[in-house]
Design brief:
The complex is a heterodimer of chains A (364) and B (468).
Chain A (H helix, E strand, L loop, with lengths): L4 H16 L8 H6 L6 H10 L5 H5 L12 H16 L7 H5 L2 H22 L19 H31 L8 H13 L10 E4 L2 E3 L1 H30 L10 H26 L10 H23 L6 H18 L6 H18 L2
Antiparallel strand pairs in A: 1-2
Helix pairs in contact in A: 1-5, 3-5, 3-14, 7-12, 7-13, 8-13, 8-14, 9-14, 10-11, 11-12, 12-13
Chain B lengths: L3 E13 L3 H12 L4 E4 L16 E3 L15 H12 L5 H11 L2 H6 L19 E3 L4 H15 L2 E3 L2 E9 L2 E9 L2 E12 L8 H8 L7 E2 L8 H8 L4 E2 L5 E7 L20 E3 L14 H13 L6 E5 L15 E3 L2 H8 L3 H14 L34 E13 L2 E2 L6 E3 L5 E7 L17 H22 L1
Parallel strand pairs in B: 1-2, 1-8, 2-5, 8-18, 9-15
Antiparallel strand pairs in B: 3-4, 6-7, 7-8, 10-16, 11-15, 12-13, 13-15, 14-15, 17-18
Classes of the chains: A mainly alpha (364), B alpha/beta (468).
Chain lengths: 364, 468
């Protein structure tokens, strides 16, 4: 990250904050800041990813704009956060994707994937969409091996990209000689992540405007996060069913993969729709408006994936299933392709920052 | 002034000034059933007077809680007050404030005020002072939100320029709102508009040209207009107009509103010289609270009201970081040139100082045995040679926190008039009457205690008067 205007502003902000310290009990950003006297680019990347954007410190700040010091911690850290995603991104040339990721490109990619899959299916099947004999026979539309190869490949790529990016971030903020093997720190960080502890600063809810605290953002995030995990678990269980036991889809409505998938899909649907609405009601000065597209794109793809998945479940015995399956798979493919270059990465980087924070706090 | 728009409404209570004391008065009066208007001279963003720069409130308490550790009894609080004021206080009012402080945190919480937990308290004040979560601006945000919920009318950008007071009886205040003159009538008034520390003309009247070099740490809106209007209307004053509380701040601080981040505390780790490059006071006399309270006026008495704190590499990391970078150089001579000091003079001062430092064991946490021998003035603690580059210099100016001149009040917060009577329906709270309790000196957080206790008292009494 070059020491440009954004970094210089970040250093100015943290220098003022460090001389003031009134906000020190809101969240981990300020105690972490107090351990430092100067703020190199990597320090700012760490602090920016510790910030959960609860917003309290903006309203409490005696130096917030229009004061000549112009201290706007939530917005400045939001900007530095995205910059850190770009800087640690792998492969590097895809860093630009963070700036171009928005509703249009997200939907465009999904539409492209859907079109591609339709085309491939039509070509393979002599110009017709296959009509499965057995109700809900997904593999008659897209063969199992094709699914495994396609999604397995994309999934492995996403994992690799995320892993390399996170490792670069970790090395930059913690130094190469510091592996994250401290069990206590890992447990504490994981607990903070799973409970979103710092999204309700000091035990209260997240702010959406001055003196307006609501629990919604946290609950909607929980719906989304656990919904995502549940869908992931559903797919994993289904993979085990198929590969270990040879049980083929479709599974019964009362089977574990379908229950997990349905619950996860419902969570994603409610969570993502709610988050999209909640962010529009939030005071814009709490964030970086330039990142609206980045946020919306990821949340909207989650919503679409959940929506098409649930629709597929309901309509899996109808003729429309073939088309729906292709649409759903296209959306999921687009979602996975954009995982390492979209809002998803915030969870990974924040977890890493919280691990470092836990290590720092525990070593005192 | 173009037109006079008389407000039709006759309020029960008009609160003049929208800081901590004013809001405490307004909320109390409103809860007692009064109709309340608050006139705040600042725009919404800068509301809250100097309270927006505060952080805590000194609080008597019988035992540990999640806010405060151990206990802090009335007599200990009172003797702390006697010590800093040199017994220059009104015992009845002081004890009223101290006893009232015990109930403050619970009362404040009712209006959404949040506190830090004492477990991670700072500045070694966890026993005596309750810290507002997020500081004074967050506190004021909570109070203003509560005022809105309760139906208190708040007028921002509304500067009171005239009072209709007849024989100690308030009828109306004339205020400027967007260039228009407005008259606000009420059955009772609470004066809570602070001191005159940001009125540059008034400061010049008192301190002469030296005042031009003072930095005002807080709000630019404390112009002392209401203090002056009340004194002109025959109110009794308390406190010396020549007394102000000043600390040493970084000379690069903004003229107003620099708040907490401009204070500098590396004085004890090195030497302080004036514009001639000469030392003028024992930098190692005492710990932070005492040091903090005296260095403002020490600098104010130096030529051009400026001084320079000089430390070497040994001081790095031993003091709270300043918001401004140090002016750094590899030699004393070079530093003198950068600071605009006579190079020969500064070199000679440092050489004399270094030669006078005795061998010792440096310990910044106690009054250690590191002292000079044979210097005028001596440095009595924490004296170490200034010999390890880089050398750092910080320019210092007097930073005024508040003025002591105020309105004399009785134990009902009622303003006393010349001749001994009380104003019929005028009450005062906060910095404008803090001089009753604190005629000089300061202890952390007592300003907010006075504002909260007297604000509540003034609100209660004003509402009671209005309902009669």
């Amino acid at each position: 990250m070059p020491a440009d205007e954004l970094i210089r502003h970040g250093q100015h902000v943290m220098t003022v904050c460090n001389a003031c310290r009134y906000c020190e009990q809101y969240c981990p950003v300020f105690p972490a800041m107090e351990r430092r006297l100067t703020f190199a680019t990597a320090d700012l990347a760490y602090l920016a990813n510790l910030c959960h954007n609860c917003g309290e410190c903006l309203y409490a700040c005696q130096y917030a704009p229009p004061h000549e010091f112009g201290i706007d911690v939530p917005r400045t850290l939001a900007k530095i956060r995205v910059r850190s995603y770009e800087d640690y991104c792998w492969p590097r040339f895809l860093a630009a994707a963070f700036r171009r990721n928005n509703l249009l490109t997200g939907f465009g990619l999904a539409a492209g994937m859907i079109a591609l899959m339709f085309a491939a299916t039509l070509v393979v099947n002599g110009g017709n969409l296959p009509r499965p004999v057995g109700a809900g026979d997904f593999y008659a539309v897209v063969p199992h091996d094709v699914m495994i190869a396609l999604f397995g490949g994309v999934f492995l790529f996403a994992i690799a990209a995320l892993w390399i990016g996170t490792r670069r971030f970790w090395r930059d903020i913690e130094g190469a000689a510091a592996p994250a093997r401290d069990v206590n720190a890992l447990v504490r960080a994981l607990r903070d992540v799973l409970a979103l502890r710092h999204l309700h600063g000091s035990g209260e809810d997240c702010t959406s405007a001055e003196e307006t605290r609501t629990p919604w953002r946290r609950w909607l995030h929980h719906c989304t996060f656990y919904g995502f995990l549940s869908c992931f678990a559903s797919t994993s269980v289904a993979a085990v069913y198929h590969m270990v036991f040879g049980w083929q889809a479709p599974y019964a409505y009362t089977s574990l993969p379908v229950i997990l998938g349905t619950a996860g899909g419902a969570g994603l649907l409610v969570g993502s729709a709610g988050l999209l609405t909640a962010r529009r009601r939030r005071d814009p000065s709490l964030g970086d408006p330039a990142q609206d597209g980045l946020d919306q794109s990821f949340i909207a793809l989650l919503f679409l994936a959940a929506f098409t998945g649930l629709l597929l479940l309901v309509l899996r015995e109808r003729a429309v299933m073939s088309a729906l399956l292709i649409v759903h798979l296209g959306v999921v493919l687009a979602l996975f392709l954009t995982l390492p270059y979209g809002k998803f990465v915030h969870g990974i980087y924040r977890t890493a920052a919280l691990v470092k924070y836990a290590r720092e706090s525990l070593t005192v | 002034m173009r037109a006079v728009n008389d407000e039709q409404e006759l309020y029960d209570v008009a609160v003049l000034g929208g800081g901590n004391a004013g809001l405490c008065a307004a909320l109390t009066a409103r809860e007692a059933g009064a109709s309340v208007v608050v006139l705040e001279s600042a725009p919404r963003h800068y509301r809250g007077g100097n309270s927006r720069h505060t952080r805590n409130l000194r609080c008597m308490h019988a035992g540990p809680s999640h806010l405060l550790t151990e206990s802090y009894a009335e007599d200990e609080f009172f003797s702390d007050l006697l010590r800093v004021t040199g017994h220059n206080t009104d015992e009845v009012l002081a004890r009223l404030v101290i006893r009232g402080s015990a109930g403050c945190p619970d009362w404040m919480r009712r209006f959404g005020v949040r506190f830090q937990s004492s477990l991670r308290g700072t500045l070694h004040l966890a026993r005596t002072n309750a810290f507002f979560l997020g500081g004074g601006k967050a506190l004021m945000n909570s109070y203003y939100a509560a005022a809105e919920r309760l139906g208190i009318r708040v007028m921002y950008d509304t500067e009171v320029v005239g009072l209709d007071v007849d024989d100690g009886c308030f009828r109306a205040a004339t205020a400027l709102v967007g260039g228009q003159s407005v008259s606000v009538r009420a059955r009772a008034a609470v004066i809570a508009a602070g001191g005159f520390e940001s009125n540059l003309e008034w400061l010049r009247e008192v301190w002469g040209e030296a005042a031009d070099n003072f930095i005002i740490r807080g709000t630019p809106y404390n112009k002392g207009k209401l203090l002056r209007l009340m004194l002109d209307a025959g109110a009794q004053s308390v406190g010396d107009a020549h007394e102000c509380h000043a600390v040493a701040v970084d000379a690069r601080a903004p003229k107003f509103d620099g708040g907490i981040v401009t204070r500098l505390d590396c004085v004890s780790l090195g030497i302080v010289v004036n514009t001639h490059g000469e030392r003028f006071y024992d930098e190692g006399e005492d710990f932070w609270p005492k040091r903090y309270a005296i260095w403002g006026s020490l600098v104010a008495r130096q030529p051009d009201q400026i001084a320079f704190s000089i430390v070497d590499a040994k001081a790095v990391g031993k003091f709270m970081p300043s918001v401004f970078p140090p002016i750094a150089a590899d030699s004393i001579r070079e530093l003198a040139i950068l600071l605009g000091l006579p190079p020969d003079g500064l070199e000679a001062t440092v050489a004399r100082f270094n030669a006078a430092v005795r061998p010792c064991r440096f310990d910044h946490s106690v009054l250690d045995d590191c002292r000079t021998d044979g210097l005028t003035p001596e440095k009595t603690h924490w004296a170490q040679r200034i010999d390890s580059p880089p050398f750092w210099g910080y320019p210092l100016r007097p930073g005024i926190t508040f003025t002591y001149l105020g309105l004399k009040v009785d134990e009902h917060a009622q303003v006393l008039m010349d001749g001994g009577g009380t104003a019929r329906n005028i009450y005062a709270a906060g910095e404008v009457m803090a001089g009753n309790i604190l005629r000089k000196g300061y202890i952390a957080g007592v300003g907010m205690t006075i504002g909260t206790v007297f604000g509540r008292l003034a609100g209660e009494e004003a509402a009671r008067h209005a309902s009669r």
